[in-house]
Structure formats: C-alpha cells, structure tokens
Write the structure tokens for this entry.
Amino acid sequence: MQLSNRTKKIEPKPLNFWERMYLPVIFQGLNITIKHLFKKKATIRYPEVKRELSPVFRGLHILKRDAQGRERCTACGLCALACPAEAISMLSAERTKEEKHLYREEKYAAVYEVNMLRCIFCGLCEEACPKAAIYLQKDKFAPAFFGREEVIYGKDRLVESVTNRAKVGLDQ
Amino acid sequence: MNDLNVAFNTQKPTPNNVQLLESDGALTTLNLGPTHPATHGVFQNIIQMDGEKIVSGETTIGYIHRAFEKLAERRPFYQITPLTDRLNYCSSPINNMGWHMTVEKLLQIEVPKRAQYMRVIMMELARIADHLICNSILGVDTGAYTGFLYVFQQRESIYEIFEEICGTRLTTNMGRVGGMERDMNERAIAKLKKFLNEFPVVLREFESMFNRNRIFIDRTKGVGGISAESALNYGFTGPNLRAAGVDYDVRAMNPYSSYEDFEFEIPIAENGDTFDRFMVRGQEMWQSLRIIEQALAKMPNDGFQASEQHYVLPEKKKVYESMEALIYHFKIIMGEIDAPEGEVYHSVEGGNGELGYYLISDGGRTPYRLHFRRPCFIYYQAYPEMVIGSQLSDAIVTLSSMNVIAGELDA
Ligand code: SF4
Ligand code: SF4
C-alpha cells in the first residue's frame, strides 16, 4: 500500500549457487573476526586509562564556594523544587556576623542533603540554581554503596574543599 | 487512503482471538519470561506447546509498570522529560523531543530552524542506535555473535555524541521546551563527522554478514509473519508495519521538526516476517544517515532556543546579573507560569513506531492528563497470533525482531 511518494521497495536478489551453500558464510564470519584481530583495539584498560568525558558530563554533585572560599548556596530551594526525583532536601539558617567569611549570602543551608539512590542525574538542579552553587562534576561518579546510610550525601561530602577547588562552573 | 478504510472495516477485531486452551496433560505450558534471557526485558509470555509446536499463547504485561502517566500529573512540564527517557531507553532522545514538541504545540512556541535541525540529527542518531540494537540482537538470537560485537562500538560512538550534547549517555533528558539546552559545540560536531565517516563501513560489514547469509535467511524468512491487514487492525506502525508493506511513516505523513526539508526514502518489504523486519530496519539506518548528512550540511544559524521569555529559561549569565531574568528564572522553575487550556496530540516516528503523546491541560502548571501511545504495547498484543504454529526458537527470534522494549511496553 502506498501512502507517500517516498516509498522504496526492498527486493533482495535471489541467492546464487555459492551463497546457497552453507559453508562459505561460516568462513566469511570467521574471516571478519580474524580481520578485527589485527585492527586497533576498541577497549581501553579502564582503571589505569580513563576515557575523557565530555565537559558537560553529569556526574557527582558538588556545592561550590566562591573566590573567597564562602559557600555560595543560599538555600533558596529551587534545586529541590526542580528535582523530578525529589532527591534534595535542605534546612536554612540565618548567617550571624561572625560567619560572614563562611557564607556568601545572609541565608545559608545549614543542612543540605542529596539522596543518591533517588537521584537520576538529570542535571535539572544545576540548571535551576540561580547562585551558581550546585554543579554536577564531569570527572566524578557517585560510587557504589554498601549501606543505605552512606547514600544520603550531606554537606560534609558535597561542599568542595577550600584548598582543592573543583574545576566546574564559574571558575572554569 | 481509501484502501486503508477498506482494510480497517473488513476484518473482525483480533486481539481476543487467542486464548489459552484447556489442557488435559497433552499440552505443555511454558513460561517464557518474565526473567528469561531471550525476552530482552521483563515481560512474560505463557506459551502452550504441543510437542515442538506452539498452539496457543498469552502475554502478560505490567512487570515494570512505573505509572509514568500518573506521575506526570503532578509534575511541571519540564520535569516530565526525564520520565520519557525511560520509555524506550534505546532511543531516549526521540522520546524527549517528542515530548518537547507536544508541549510546544500546546504553548504555541515556534522553534528556530537550527534547533529543529539539531533535534533531527539527535533523533536520527537515536534511531540508528535503536535499530542497531534490534538487528544485532536478532543476530545473537540466531547464533551470530560476531555482528553484535562490532556494531556495538558504533552505538558507543553515538552515545558519546549524546554525551557531548546533553551530558549523559542513556537517560538523556536532552533538549528543553523551546529548543535545545545548549548549542552544538566543536567537539560534538567533530565526533558526529567521525561517526558519519566510520559508520557506513561498519554497517556494510554487518550487512555482508547477514543480508545474504543462507543460515540467517533460513532461520528468519517466513517466521513470525503478519499480513498488512492484520497489522493495521492491531494498530502496528513503524518498521513492523512497513515490513508488512504499508509505507506509513510519521516523518513523511505528518512532518514535524522540519522533516519535510530532507530527502529520504521509506523502505518497505512485503511479507511482514522476521527477515523483512530486519531488512527494513537495516535500510532505515542508511536513510537516517542520509538525513543526518543533509541536516548537518544545511544547518542554519538562527539560535538554538526560541525567544519566549515566559517558557524558555533565560541565559545563566543574565540570571546572575539582572533582576528581570532572575524573576523569570524563578517563575519557570517553580512552574508558576500556567499553560493554556487545551488538548493536543503529537506523534513522532520513534525507534519502534508512532510514539504519540496525548496531553490535556486544564490551564495549570501540570498536565491534567497525559497518555503515551506506545508502539511496543501494541506489538505485544499481536505476539501470540504471530507465533502460533511455529516452534519455540522461532518465537524467540520473532519477539526479538519486533523489538519490544519492556520500558515502553509498561510505561
Ligand atoms: S540531578 Fe536531577 S535527580 Fe539528581 S538531584 Fe539534581 S535534579 Fe534531582
Ligand atoms: S544549591 Fe542553588 S538552587 Fe539549591 S538551594 Fe542552593 S542556591 Fe538555591
């Protein structure tokens, strides 16, 4: 039945005598395997050699600090709202005078948790953040877990270290 | 079109024709699935066999039903994209784009040409990946592992291109309502060009192993056939319908995302059996390549997002600096901007067939009701009819050539 003018009928030619014999195709397959034996390897030796991931890869979350080392997050809750998997939860607190060197904004996240079992690494939290605070890193994955307690990442594991800055977001 | 109407009316509805028979010990009941390596997914077929022959069968669904349609009812539109990833996970970008286009239809957003072409490229890559999986796995099911091994490298290259565009490989969450999330960068284009160079060689090698291979043809020709009439009555679309001889392709019949700009052909076969399905998919990959080449060559430069400040997120830099952008950013993310009331249906040619989205909006931030028209769900209903009278090993290649994906079957 023809509904459009783009139709192309597939009509394979009948097999010739040589093709109708069973044996040649077996050797043909074998031939291809042998040829590939001498080609460049497609695999890499993983733990020693790592493939370069794309600069926009969506890996493990990180909470950024600004140039002065203050936490950027202001606990606005947009990331939690944008998360389709409902993986993020937080508790906000008000910054006191003595904490000015710790937090960039007057309100900050006292508790910030990402449940890595729920997270689907969709990247919507990164897109939602208006403070350039949360990013998905391109060179770190969420590791495998042995227990459920380890799965909920608190600020201790999410906030980047002051000395060893991650290369994502505005610093890139 | 008249032909179609006749075809629809002349046959009694089939889905209930097949029922399990009363057996007094003469028949063997066999559970193919839900965790059977040959079903390639979590679904069950109860098959009744008389000796070597299948006499009846029943299909069971729902093993990985995740209630996506219900979940979608309390999520703003942009958060539904990750759900669509998990329908046919072999070609998630097609699902994503189909969903974006549905929402754009509701919101009446005009997407710039560049974004449309980028979408076309991504969708065709996804189609190639989808067909590659189906065809090479069919090879594995007939005992030819070699083909599978070498074409999978190319699938890997496709996933790397996805990674450059959207940041991940399988569950892509690619594109946004109103365009794409970012423009195609140099790396992505380089990888795409490399793929366009390498893939034809590999595909030709793959075809040389199967297309004229007597063993493969013996195993697949005349196996699991379905007539065009019966296929239409079930509601088949996509490669499975085209293998039966009806050239229905949403890309040509109802062009979306600028498909009318490209030259391509719709391969059809006539018997609707496993071999024909294999050949149609194989030829479609060549056509997809053609489309990608044209899209890449003709790519216009008019931006990758629509300029709709109510629905499209402002640029990040502006959000950090300007109050107005920040306000719109908040409103969009919080889903505060209501969609108009209305009812839309949009369908795209998915890896497997017509993938439709039926969306009813009551004017709120979420869909009032959403339904996915999932081709796999339809194919699976026809499965018992297609395998009755054949042998068990034929039933397995039939299932694998129909490319029923559990995620799409169950939503
Ligand atoms: S990546 Fe997606 S699922 Fe994970 S925390 Fe962010 S928004 Fe939630
Ligand atoms: S990470 Fe960003 S979006 Fe999330 S609460 Fe902090 S500032 Fe808001």
